Amino acid sequence: MDESLLYEADPAYLEHLFKTERYIWLSLSYDMAAVIDLEGLIEEVNTPWTETTGYAMDELMGNYLMEYIHFADREITLAGLQSLVTSDIGSMQFNFRFRCKGGLLKDLNWTIIYSPEHNRYFCVVKDVTERSAGDAMAIAYRDALTGLHNRLFLQDNFPTILERATEEGKEVAVLFLDLDGFKEVNDTLGHKAGDLLLQKVAKRIKRAVDCSDCSVVRLGGDEFVAIGTHTRDEAAMGAKEIVRELSAPFMLGGIDVTIGASVGVSMFPEHGTTPEALLEKADKAMYSVKDTGKNNWTFAVDA
């Protein structure tokens, strides 16, 4: 047996390579960068942290990230970190208020990648405190991977969409979709291929529901929602087009990959008058499609 293979497989040697690799990454990053373990412990940071937060690097390392997050932002941040581990997608972006030295709060934008190989979160962080309110909000509402709107956008804007539809006497369609076969792509081709697939999926969804007042949102993982002022017939056409678009093969690194989408549709005010009710009805309809063969769509039922 080649002794070099034994040496390369030695855990201590692999750990040395990992530490060298992340040291280089931290050193070369112009932005704040951090390595955080699964318990939320800050293992390593780079020098830009000192200029932005006032903390020396050794003051941050060895402490828990949650200690520095504004109390009101902790729950959503913790949920986001946990979802990276439990879902099929390895990256996400969000903002929260960070308590700097002296108690000053700064709005930091985090792009976080979870590496299952290392059981670590790798974070690139930007200070968006000084940006205009519009710029900061645009970043906060954008999904870093796909460029679509994110869950926060949906939470803040869905009620307004319904209020406007009520005033104008219009219907609103909610299309809740989950990809069929995405986990298999992730498991066989890896997270990078999965991320690329999600980017391509986002473009096709936008193309399928192309209209001036449609909002396409990535909820997380491989779940998406499209919302717009549509009639029932228009919603049906949009759902059919999404299924058709996402059934066509995707090219990933020279490999043809075929997936599908299960889509559930709810209508305002027919199936509900609140964001929660409409999302719940559309979600249930989506799962009914999965239970009856997948890669199709259906309307919610009044139950």
From TrEMBL:
Q: Which InterPro entries match?
A: Biofilm_reg_signaling, GGDEF_dom, Nucleotide_cyclase, PAS, PAS-like_dom_sf, PAS_fold, Rev_trsase/Diguanyl_cyclase
Pfam name, any one: PAS
Q: Which residues form the GGDEF domain?
A: 170-302
The domain of life is Bacteria
Q: Which SUPFAM superfamilies match?
A: Nucleotide cyclase, PYP-like sensor domain (PAS domain)
Domain PAS per the UniProt entry, residue ranges? 35-88
Set out the biological process GO terms recorded for this chain's protein. Answer: regulation of DNA-templated transcription
Mind telling me what this protein is named?
Diguanylate cyclase
